Amino acid sequence: LWPQVVTAHLLGGFTTLSLLFLLSLRLSGAFAPLQLPSKLRALAALALLMVIGQIALGGWVSSNYAAVACIDLPMCHGEWWPNMDFANGFHLTQHIGPNYLGGQLDSDARTAIHMTHRMGALCVTAVILLLAWNLQRHGLIGITALMLLGLSFQIGLGISNVLLHLPLPVAVAHNGGGAFLLLMLVLVNYRVRAPATKRVELPAGGPIALDALERPVAYPSQG
Questions:
Q1: Distance (Å, rounded) from C-alpha 14 to C-alpha 183?
Q2: 212: which DSSP letter?
Q3: From CA 57, how far away is CA 200, in angstroms rounded?
Q4: Rounded to 5 degrees, what are φ and ψ at 202?
Q5: Are 78 and 72 in contact (CB under 8 A)?
Q6: Torsion over CA: 76, 79, 81, 85 (sign)
Q7: pLDDT tens per residue, range 25-60
Q8: Which conformational region is residue 165 in: left (phi greater than 0), alpha (psi within -120 to 50 degrees), or beta?
């Protein structure tokens, strides 16, 4: 159970899920991409990258057995800034010995991992709230509501994991909530990134839109 492999395995699964979801969006045509300001597209991309980073941090918390490194909220060990060992907590080439069951990091290193995940959650929340405010200004109410629902779900489950000392159903639900929030950000980025129409010259005719080449062609019925 090497933490690097466990975390990469989690990210690989989430990547596969995201790509399948994106493929289904492109094939179904259920949600048309929209032409929106470039600042909004950049904010949506930032939110997506931050959610991916937070998922990676969550995997690192789990694989290093750091989920219960802090069992109080909002402080940790009764302090706002407890003793933390970031160098060992994020030592990506750590040696694992015979196995890693139960983890091999000391308390300060696990506390550093746990607190980083908490701080990441605050940053992700702030960026998603800003994104939601901008999306609703452009009339994307439904997708905004789903994104905020996923965010609220994740925050509640994360708090429950700490206060209830990591019950398995809550931990699994927290993983699923992360997947849902990731898919919502994939959907947001798909909607706000309308492809630019390109023109190409065909040998036997005039210029046509490139996206026209991808539209299904209606053939006359036979018989």
A1: 9
A2: G
A3: 45
A4: -100, 145
A5: yes
A6: negative
A7: 999 887 877 888 889 999 999 999 999 999 999 999
A8: left
